[in-house]
């Protein structure tokens, strides 16, 4: 009995000493943060598990400022200047590599990938895929992307009410499947998620769980025993489906407008990519390219239906610009300033990558925001919290696309980097913009998009995030009805000849144009 008490006493003393050291003697002791988080890693891990880490970080940045110590060895940043310091290459500074805790392989035989932390392999894959994401290749991929938006729109036109979140996922996964695996998942055609997509959508929680265990070496070695059998089986099924799809695509000895053809040519000439490497990289491209874009579009549409003044202005820009739907293309939507501002503002309030992708400070330490940070420290720019700081954006929780047209005092748009910067920044940024622009434009041009339940208003940040947002199907109930517009108190007259010109009253949206402008704001509506 006495030895049990002695043992427990020793454990207690060790824990207290460990916490005391972390909080008051550690090289990061001068950085502010909540006491328990500075002393232990577990509050951070619990928060990641609960899915509320983005809200916690937001609260802490509000309280402690642009740098917060969120674990004994981790700092979170929200000041725009930190982007360059953490993620770009600077003269006389070693680059900060990705944090292996988040990007650890599940098994030693797993090949490296473009998302991995091995910098050499990353550089090799980045070079191989660079051409696949060039402007020239996007031009070739544009008709493929647009054909899926055609199919998406055709399906929506046949329905009265839809769960937009689900259908936007169908759209983006079908596009990514085609551009990576050489074939669509047929989610739009079948009106349901393909098994590959279903499993992939559960990745977030799994990744959050794995990264939490990885924080406590050597327990990560037990990971494979802790993960429930059925989840392990789903992962294996997913891998074999990916392998089959990847091999099928590689066997196609034809040039297709996709991500594979240019990378394959590069690999053949310079540095062959092995079959296993193809498999993992293709899966990453599918997932990175679809979940993010669907999440962004869902967030943007939610902001629009909750801010009808913005919806009106956007609808007007689109209907002024296009008389027929088929003119709405990737190329023609690039020049619409308000559409682009709406997308940026949606990405600010609903960033698909809600928490920062962490880096590790290399040997010798580094300087971030002019302050020394010791080697081994994890550092990250956390997007959700940074984008909602009043030190970066005026009225940070309001949906104001105009801030991207005319940034005013209080808007530091340099803090806004939803695609990251530096050598690991999003390789698919051009594709992402293309998909978001053309699908949002067609959706808003064609439909009166509104909430099925008018009272279903909530802030995007109130959802949980497990690396990706968990868009709760029950709470998100988007409706997309092909109805005539009924705006404010007035309905509209249709021109009997053309059937398209109608009058619009902006009242009822809490957004009133000055009388001299109101005349010019006419709606082009197709019933
Ligand atoms: C709205 C949509 C998207 C957002 C917000 C987004 C965001 C990001 C961010 C923040 C990173 C940086 C990760 C880091 O710093 O470690 C990243 C990397 C990446 N993204 Fe995206 N992304 C989007 C769409 C896409 C698309 C459409 C593709 C491909 C089709 C894609 C493929 C990738 C890949 C492969 C990487 C890793 C790049 C590297 O490490 O070199 N993403 N993305």
Short account of what is shown:
The chain contains 23 helices and 12 strands. With 527 residues, it is α+β, with helices and mostly antiparallel strands.
Structure description:
The protein is of the alpha+beta class. The protein is globular. The protein has helices at residues 2-25, 35-39, 42-50, 53-64, 82-87, 100-103, 119-130, 135-157, 164-181, 187-190, 195-200, 203-214, 223-226, 229-251, 260-269, 275-306, 308-321, 330-333, 337-349, 383-387, 402-405, 429-446, 515-518; strands at 67-71, 74-77, 359-360, 366-368, 371-373, 378-381, 448-451, 464-466, 468-470, 478-481, 501-502, 523-524. The model is unreliable at 473-496 and 499-527 (pLDDT under 50). Helix 9 (164-181) runs antiparallel to helix 16 (275-306) and helix 16 (275-306) packs parallel to helix 22 (429-446). The chain has one domain (1-462): Cytochrome P450 (Cytochrome p450), CATH 1.10.630.10. Protoporphyrin IX containing FE is lined by residues 98, 114-115, 122, 126, 284-285, 288-289, 292-293, 296, 352-353, 357, 418-420, 424-428, 431-432.
- Work out the count of structural domains: 1
Whole-Å distance between the termini? 82 Å
Strand order of the largest sheet: 1-2-6-3
The CATH class label is Mainly Alpha
The average pLDDT is 85
Report the total helices. 23
> Can you summarize the main beta sheet?
4 strands, mixed
CATH superfamily: Cytochrome P450
The CATH topology is: Cytochrome p450
The number of strands is 12
Query: How much β-strand is present in the residues?
Result: 5-15%
Which cofactor or ligand species appear?
A: protoporphyrin IX containing FE
Can you tell me the CATH architecture? Orthogonal Bundle
Q: In terms of per-residue confidence, which ranges show pLDDT below 50 for 5 or more consecutive residues?
A: 473-496, 499-527
Bulk shape: globular
């Amino acid at each position: 009995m006495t030895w049990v008490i002695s043992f427990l006493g020793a454990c207690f003393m060790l824990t207290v000493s460990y916490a005391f050291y972390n909080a008051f003697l550690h090289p990061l002791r001068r950085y502010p943060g909540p006491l328990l988080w500075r002393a232990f890693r577990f509050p951070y891990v619990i928060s990641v598990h609960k899915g509320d880490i983005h809200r916690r970080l937001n609260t802490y940045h509000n309280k402690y400022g642009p740098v917060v110590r969120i674990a004994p060895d981790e700092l979170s940043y929200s000041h725009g200047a930190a982007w360059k310091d953490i993620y770009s290459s600077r003269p006389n500074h070693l680059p900060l590599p990705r944090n292996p805790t988040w990007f650890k392989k599940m098994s030693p035989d797993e090949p490296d990938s473009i998302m991995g932390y091995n910098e050499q392999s990353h550089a090799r894959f980045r070079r191989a895929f660079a051409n696949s994401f060039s402007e020239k290749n996007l031009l070739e991929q544009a008709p493929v992307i647009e054909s899926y938006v055609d199919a998406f729109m055709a399906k929506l036109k046949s329905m009265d009410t839809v769960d937009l979140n689900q259908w936007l996922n169908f759209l983006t996964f079908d596009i990514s499947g085609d551009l990576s695996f050489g074939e669509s998942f047929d989610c739009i055609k079948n009106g349901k998620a393909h098994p590959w997509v279903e499993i992939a959508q559960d990745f977030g929680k799994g990744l959050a769980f794995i990264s939490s265990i990885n924080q406590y070496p050597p327990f990560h070695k037990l990971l494979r025993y802790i993960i429930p059998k059925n989840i392990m089986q789903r992962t294996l099924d997913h891998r074999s489906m990916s392998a089959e799809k990847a091999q099928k695509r590689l066997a196609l000895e034809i040039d297709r407008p996709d991500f594979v053809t240019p990378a394959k040519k590069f690999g053949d000439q310079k540095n062959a990519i092995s079959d296993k490497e193809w498999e993992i990289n293709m899966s990453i491209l599918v997932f990175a390219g679809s979940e993010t874009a669907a999440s962004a579009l869902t967030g943007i549409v939610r902001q629009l239906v909750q801010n009808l003044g913005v919806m009106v202005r956007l609808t007007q820009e689109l209907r002024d610009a296009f008389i027929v739907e088929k003119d709405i293309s990737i190329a023609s939507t690039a020049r619409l300033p308000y559409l682009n501002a709406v997308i940026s503002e949606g990405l600010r309030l609903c960033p698909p990558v809600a928490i920062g992708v962490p880096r590790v400070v290399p040997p010798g330490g580094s300087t971030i925001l002019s302050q020394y940070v010791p080697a081994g420290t994890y550092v990250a720019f956390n997007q959700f919290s940074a984008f909602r700081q009043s030190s970066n954006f005026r009225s940070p929780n309001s949906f104001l696309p105009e801030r991207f047209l005319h940034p005013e005092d209080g808007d530091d748009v340099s803090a806004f980097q939803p695609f990251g910067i530096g050598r690991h920044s999003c390789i698919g940024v051009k594709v992402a913009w293309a998909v978001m622009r053309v699908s949002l434009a067609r959706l808003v041009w064609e439909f009166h998009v509104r909430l099925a339940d008018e009272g279903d208003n909530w802030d995007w940040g109130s959802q949980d995030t497990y690396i990706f947002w968990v868009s709760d199907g029950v709470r998100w109930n988007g409706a997309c009805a092909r109805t005539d517009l009924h705006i404010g108190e007035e309905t509209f007259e249709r021109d009997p000849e053309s059937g398209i010109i109608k009058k619009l009253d902006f009242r009822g949206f809490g957004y009133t144009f000055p009388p001299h402008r109101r005349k010019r704001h006419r709606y082009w509506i197709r019933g």
